[in-house]
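quick one: manganese (II) ion bound model?
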Amino acid sequence: MAVPRNSLRNFLVLAKNTIQNAINQSQKITFVIGNESADLDSFTSSLIYAYVRSGIPTPHAFTPLYVPVTNIPFSGIQLRPEFLALLPRANIEPRHLITLDDLPDLSDIKSKLRPENTKWILVDHNSLQGALGSIYSDRVGGVIDHHDEENKVPKDTGSEPRIITKSGSCTSLVTEYCRETWDALSDSVMSSGAAHRQGDDLVDDSTMATLWDAQVAQLGLASILIDTTNLQAKEKTTEHDIKAVEYLEAKVMACPQVSAQYDRSKFFAEIDAARKDIGGLRLHDILRKDYKEWTERGMKLGISSVVKPICFLQEKAQREANGRDADESFLPAIREFSEDRDLAIYALMATSTSLEGKFQRELLIWAFTADAVCAAKKFLSDAGGELGLEDWHGSDGRPRGKQSETDWMRIWWQRNVEHSRKRVAPLIREAMS
Ligand SMILES: [Mn+2]
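yep, here:
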């Protein structure tokens, strides 16, 4: 049975209840989960997939309802000002989101959500990492992603997609995949002709559905515009992104109430400004806000992406340490962050805009064990050219680094700025393996 046509808000309430039923009555459940950096793209990819696919019954689906999961604890939402800016556009609040806190505790998740009762669709990643991965990776049965293929998802995914292809935003690929179903969903409401009361007004179903579609479409647009810099970044933007924006904007334009307040560039600028508004966060939270990790040959790698330059982080560290020297505050904070996570290698990717308005990248890599130091040096010799690494000097003109056999740290300008973590992570992992 299909889930009744509903607003995103009501859909999320229903989806949250579904988790409780699955736990209390051992029912089957399907999750659509983004990656553990839980950026906008992961968030909207899982929402759109779950919302649209739950609206029309999929033959042979594991369950009729798909539950979208944001792959962080609830407290992580507050670290993402871009979420807080965006959610009202879809008439939802943080409490509506389904996060890791809505799943049973990891210590007994296996007994409460037995693996055989679950199915997992991955969006914006193609290998389920961490504790969930160690329990449920055999239950992954579908993927839509734009990262390098990890060959972890089975080749045959039956009635679910197996799409891994290059695009600026994974949300574009999800939109493309859901398009036909979404259109069918909209058409089915248009023809029903039913009406119901909203306040003093009699509103027909199709008006409501047009509003709901426009709300969800705006969420998708936010991710695609952020990931492609308003479709202006040539090296990131693909045909998938352009078509998806066209499609989603048509949904916005179909709803006068929403379209009156929609202007693509203004919308992009608003969400982008919110995303960069991290001055109020603590350094530790900035480092964990957009963070991913991997394990290669028993060595753990963690990579933070930050939307501010390293000097911003140094100043922040200095203020938090009550004004000691910037380096003496910053580097110990980075080391502590890495030690807390038991990392062999930590990388920090910082992006910023120069005074001349040019997009720029800085890269810090710190290796904490002998094996990790070998890997880090190998990374530098194998990938330094491709990434355009150039020694970084602080505002005082001094380079920074540590060069011992078990403690090796370097900071560079990454002059080939088209390479994001999507490329840098595989390069470091390759050097580690
Ligand atoms: Mn993505």
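Residues 41, 124, 146, 170 surround manganese (II) ion (CB under 6 Å).
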